[in-house]
Design brief:
Blueprint lengths: L3 H49 L9 H45 L4 H32 L4 H14 L1
Helix pairs in contact: 1-2, 2-3
Length: 161
């Protein structure tokens, strides 16, 4: 049997091994948050640009601008919520990792609480990723190519033949 100080070191080493997977998960969530923040910044920039170029109600482009602004507003809301949920997931994972060490050092048995915390973190992450998926789908609605441009492209191809 190991002396008491070596037992403590061995237990802490084991706890560190248990904490490695959640730490890699945190790195992945950090990357997801980076992508979400980048998308949010681009959407906000586009909304500001569109607001500067906004036309009066009698202008032919006004309706299209209002439609795009509504989609941009929805994307901003979705990205913000996804960031919130993914950040909450990361914070909960940090709490679980801290709980691993507290439980090991104090010999408190709250494994079930930590398991529920980890499950909650995964549900938050899945919810954030689902909102990200919806945001991407909404973004696709704003990048439709106008029909008259497609006709011009078709005419150019037929000319080259």
């Amino acid at each position: 049997m190991l002396p008491p100080s070596n037992v403590a070191v061995a237990e802490i080493a084991h706890t560190i091994q248990l904490a490695v997977a959640p730490v890699f998960l945190l790195a992945g969530i950090g990357s997801i948050l980076n992508v979400l923040a980048g998308r949010l910044a681009r959407v906000v920039d586009r909304a500001r640009q569109l607001a500067r170029e906004f036309t009066p109600t009698d202008h032919p482009d006004h309706e299209a601008q209002v439609h795009e602004l509504r989609l941009l507003d929805r994307r901003i809301m979705l990205a913000n919520m996804a960031i919130f949920l993914c950040t909450a997931s990361a914070a909960l994972i940090c709490a679980v990792v801290a709980g691993l060490f507290i439980a090991d050092l104090t010999s408190l048995g709250f494994a079930r609480t930590m398991a529920f915390g980890f499950i909650a973190a995964m549900l938050l992450l899945v919810s954030g990723l689902f909102l990200f998926l919806i945001e991407v789908r909404v973004a696709l609605l704003t990048i439709r190519v106008r029909e008259e441009l497609l006709e011009q492209r078709t005419n150019r191809r037929s000319w080259r033949r």
